[in-house]
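Researcher: Structure prediction, please.
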Amino acid sequence: MSPLSASKQRKQAKVSFLCQECGHASPKWEGKCSACGAWNTYVEFHEPTARPGHAASRSPGAAGGGRLGIAMQAAPAASVAPIDEQPSQVGRRIPIGMPEVDRLLGGGIVAGAVMLIAGDPGIGKSTLLLQAAANLTAAGQRVLYVSGEESGSQVRLRAERLGLAQRGVLFLAETSADALMDHLARVQPGALIVDSIQTLSTELAPSGAGSVAQVRECAQLLLRWAKTANAPVFLAGHVTKEGGIAGPRVLEHMVDVVVQMEGEGLNAYRMLHCTKNRFGATNDVALMEMRQEGLIDVADPSAALIGERQEGVPGSAITVALEGTRPLLAEVQALTNFSTFTPPRRASNGIDYNRMAMLAAVLSRRAGLSLGNQDIMVNVPGGLRVGEPAADLATALAIASSFRDAPLDARTVFLGEVGLNGEVRRVPQLERRLTEAVRHGFQRALVPAHESVAELRVAGMTLVPVSSVREALRLAIGRSD
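Model: Predicted structure follows.
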């Protein structure tokens, strides 16, 4: 293409503005994004245009010099047909070889699916992907591991440390998505791993790697290849300082599965949250432990989360959180102390801050606890984040226990949502939670008082119905104001 024609094509390209926070497109620059409300986040983006003589569906490959035309064959024309005549994916799941991850995904990854794994730097994303690549290769899959952050020697060091260097995983150090398409056409792998999506760039977008336009275009190329080759694609993604997935929000909508990897830097446990899964349950969780040989499945997460708790200590309460389809025992710790500052300090880790502040206000107003001059700290050890209201009663009683300096019963679990009037409301799937508590030796449970509790029968568990926080304080601590 001559410089004159290239300049003409750029002039004909549609110019839009993309929000770097959410990926919203606007025909003109605005100071505030109308979608997410962020300020000064719009960047100019030139929409790629198709070259003459190329179909619209092949325009990305044409704009990149025809590389996609080599890497992928044109998809057959779509036709209208009933749903029951569409191709079935039953039985096409590919086990990754890590039982907890396979369970999290619903039995393995589906052929042709695109999975995004996001997490903080150093959390273990590359280790998880390298272990998955080695397991898939050992199962007979041809796996290509693409790294835009590390060289081959660096990845080999990690593979040798994990004992995976002899598994036969194919490796490529590449940051150009257009060149990657050429390699995919030649190698034709059965699975692709990209570490990470923010390091790839394509000629389709004029901005630098990691920008909204680059992430969107590169993800679109990989998504189209996965559906055409019917091969799974694993993408590692960065996170922002707020903990959200970096790049445009549209990236999470494009992929089939989103897994968030969480954990404290000095804690060996890693929590995998499945926030999106088109082929299985969402909001499920898997617990893994980081060791010298890599990430190891934790067979009994409840025992690991409460195994180090001290019995007979004020400010400790046990609840049963439901993460997806799995009930998990969790310890809620609270500490109150007379404050020398005004206003007193409030802090929470693993519990929503606003919910903790609301429970403190309910205890002050409805239960008569004078917490206005108290610093309140709430923590859920083990790296678990409890976001459901079923832990309200345990959080409130842990705060009251620390304030009264009176320990709670070590064999009792506390379940219930707390309202602003101090009432204790019902929680879903109560029987499953109580069964998990019985399995770990708990014998008594404070539960919401409603009509279905009388019909509930859990072997080995004594149910104590409570209707208000004041009543729960009287039964759990033995005194209330």
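Model: The CA atoms of residues 97 and 111 lie 15 Å apart.
Researcher: Thanks, that helps.
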